[in-house]
Every structure is written in structure tokens, then in C-alpha cells.
Amino acid sequence: MPRTPSRRTALRGLVAGSAVVIGFDPFTRSWAVTDSGRPLSGVPRLDGTLLTDDASLGADADDFGHIVHRRPAAVLRPGSVRDVVAMVRFCNRHRLPLAPRGQGHGTNGQAQVEGGLIIETGPLSSIGPVRTGSSHVTVGAGAKWSDVAKAAIAHGLTPPVFTDYLELSVGGTLSVGGLGGQSHQSGAQVDNVVELEVVTGAGELLRCSPTRHPDLFHSVLAGLGQCAVIVGATLRLVPAPETVRHYLLPYADLQTFLEDQQLLATEGRFAYLEGQVSADTAGAFNQFAIEAVAYGPPVGDTPDDTALLRGLRYETSGAQITDLGYYDFLDRLAPSVAALKEAGLWAYAHPWLNLVLPGRSTADVAGALLDALTPADLGPGVVLLYPLLREHLHAPLLRMPEDPVPYLFAVLRTTPPEDTATVRRLLNANRSAYEKVQAVGGTQYPVGSVPFQHADWKRHFGPVWKRFAEARKTYDPKGILVPGQGIF
Ligand SMILES: Cc1cc2nc3c(=O)[nH]c(=O)nc-3n(C[C@H](O)[C@H](O)[C@H](O)COP(=O)(O)OP(=O)(O)OC[C@H]3O[C@@H](n4cnc5c(N)ncnc54)[C@H](O)[C@@H]3O)c2cc1C
Prior knowledge:
This is FAD-binding protein. Helices cover 28% and strands 25% of the residues.
């Protein structure tokens, strides 16, 4: 049963500085807007529901970071793409800020909007049809990657690139980039999109692709929701393996670990390549492990350990080699996520630090940042360090260092949310780490919690800033979309 807001509940926003009240008439199922009590215009009839109850507003005033809390005035649970169009037009007309929300796994309020409208994309979760032998599938923006994977694998197919965690929405990761262990071979998820269906900030429903409204296409992919709401995406598919072989290869020093990763990335020996750093018993972050995966039939031959591991300088005694079903590999985080939820740690604050370092400076910069890291400041989190290949990363708004082999460096901190002094200190530490990385030509991957101002964003987007700002003016002329990113 959809929850129906009471007659008295109201959406409060700002129209040219004056309070707007939107009241719901349960008899006509329509909404009326008043400015100081005077009717302005009706909120459109919807196929879905517009919620203003405490629970819905409270839920969308939070995210995976549990650090920023901005309370929206209303939440749209759309019953159709038509609802998204109608409510974006409504917000555009009344200059109400709005943000789409996929799974709310941002860590810094990116999908939150104070006093505005949240469009939950979850109901827009259609997938397919997927046809055997097809090279693409069209999905709703709210579909989760876990569901897309299952639907594609049933036909022997798969998207080429996955994030480590699958319970993220397609629209959410396409808005940031979508990086994973396959990125050194196939780029980011945004590099594997054939076409998008979007609702611009002006409320226009458009399809865009590299050849159709290309400026819009390139402003939406990794565009942090600033020009349009993605409502659907046509994603590239490739043949899926049935099984994979998973290798965990320990290293005792950073330099050797990085050199072997770089070798593997450039040779493309493995289909998937990542790496982790952990602390020894004395608390020093000096334990490294390459995580690599070779795909089995029908994509590749049965993995040949000798050929795959030739010349690598890992500590052979600690190596772990495991065969897995393909989906079990993709969904490998599910058991640890269940354990974190069980232990209450999923609800901890996550002041995440996600940076991209130029390969040439990775040993120095990552080394210095790891030297300064303490187990207490990581908490029950993880440190990731793995290479990407610049030649496969084409989306202009996914900012990468000028280096053929950039490294993703992520300190996925987890800390009690009630200790706000520590959270603040970690946010400051993130900022200072970002500045060190920026000074050597690195950047941030904007899914974490690095305090960022307008001037930082201009610098972040650098040579593409002007085009991005122009696209924002064209497609969201009233500047209502996704204020939580703090870009414009
Ligand atoms: C446990 C975990 C693991 C992760 N692993 C990875 C990883 O391996 N690789 C990686 O690249 N990232 C990873 N991330 C980061 C993740 O990709 C981003 O935070 C992503 O934006 C989250 O998707 P979401 O559906 O929760 O989006 P939300 O948090 O709901 O939204 C994120 C931003 O995108 C905007 N947005 C959402 N939907 C749309 C839409 N349809 N149209 C336009 N804008 C939209 C929102 O307004 C907001 O600004 C991880 C995050 C978590 C919490």
C-alpha cells in the first residue's frame, strides 16, 4: 500500500524568496501550490506517490556516510518516467531544488537536498529484455547492478565492468563513473554506455548517446547529476564466463607490489585486477595483496597458473587460489556486508577518502599517506590501491591524472557516528591528503567525503569546466539539480 500523506502535510520550498506550501487534496488526488495561501498551480497527478511523512523524509536525510543530514520537503516514489518529467517540470517552474537518489550510498550528502524534492529512482528498475547473443540491455536508472548482472548472466552475458559492491543503482554509479577491477581492461562503467534516457533540469525527456545530443550525453556520464536525471540506460554486454579463478597474492613491500600491478595492468593478463593494503600487528600499513581474477570458459581457457603468475614477486607461501562461480565472484562482498550489518558497523560513519594518483607518484604519495595512517583512523574499513589504464577511460567528466597508469587509492574509513570530533578530524585529514595528491597532479574520485568548495570543483574539472558549466546552463537553466554536490 503506498503511504498517502495527510491533507495538512506540506512541501515547503522557496519561490523567489517566498515560502511555498504544497497541500494534498485526497479527494481529487491532486496537489495545490499556494504562495502565502494564494493558489499558484497544481502539482501534477502522479502514477506514483509523493511522500511527506517523517519516516520517508528522515530516511532520505541520511546516506551511507551518516555524516551529513539534510531534510527534504518531499520524496517522490515515481510510478513512471512521466512522474519524473512532471515533477522536474514542477520544480523547475517553482525553482525548487531536487536530487535523484539511487541507493543513497554517497558518503557526503551528495543525494540530499534541504527543503527540496528527492526522486527515489528505485521504482524505475526495469531490466531488459536481455536476448542471448545481444550486445546490450536497456535498464531503468534505479536497477541495481546485482539484478542487472543476474539478468545478463542468465543469457551468458555480462556488463564488462562492476563496482566491488553490487547493491548500487545504475543511475548512481553512472553519475560518478563506476570503477572496478575490470577497469584496467574496459574503462569505467560510464565508458560502457550505449545510450541514456534522461530528464533534463528543464524537464525535457531526451535520449542521448555519442551521436545524439552528445554534449548532453557527455555532461551526464560522471556528471554528478548536474544536468539531468538519468531515467534509463542502455548498457554494453559481453560474453560472461561461467567460472573464474581468484588469486590473492601477498607482498611485503609497496614498490614491488606496485611494479607487479603495473606489469599486470599493462599486459592485461587478468580480467580483473585490484589490490589491498592492511596493517601488521604493530599497526603499520605494510601488508600488500594483489587480488586478480582470470575468467574461465567460455570467455577464456581454463586459467593456467604458471603463465598467469610468471615473473611475479609475491610471497609464494601466502598465496591463495580459489575457483568460483562468476556471480559468486561479482557478489564476493555480500558475506562481509551481512557481517558488518549484523555487527551494526554498516550504520557507522564513513568519512571515505577516494583519490586517484598519477602512477609516477604513487609509490611516494601512497607511501607517505600509508605511513601516516593508523588502524584507529581506518577503523573496521579497508584500504584499496590498484591501477587503471588511462587509454580505456574516455568520459571527459571522470577526471583522471595525466598519466598512462593512474592508481585508485581509497581509505574506506569506518568510525562511530556519535564521535563527531573524530569524524571532523578525519574529514580534515581527507582534505589534507587530497591537497598532497592534487599537488602532484592527482585528483579525487568524488564518491567520498573530501570537503570541497566551488573553487575546488573548478580546479577538479580543469579543462572541461567551461563546457560542463555551459551544459549546466543549457540543460538546468534554473540550477535546481543536485545541490548536495556543491558544484555550481
Ligand atoms: C559499500 C560501497 C562500495 C562501493 N564500491 C565502489 C566501487 O567499487 N567502485 C566505484 O566506482 N564506486 C563504489 N562506490 C561508490 C558508489 O559508486 C557511489 O557512491 C554511487 O554514486 C552510489 O550509487 P547510489 O545508487 O547509492 O547513488 P546515490 O548515493 O543515491 O547518488 C549518488 C549521486 O548520484 C546522483 N544520482 C543518483 N541517481 C541518479 C540518476 N538516476 N540520475 C542522475 N543523478 C543521479 C545523486 O543525486 C547523488 O548526487 C561504493 C560505495 C559504497 C557505499
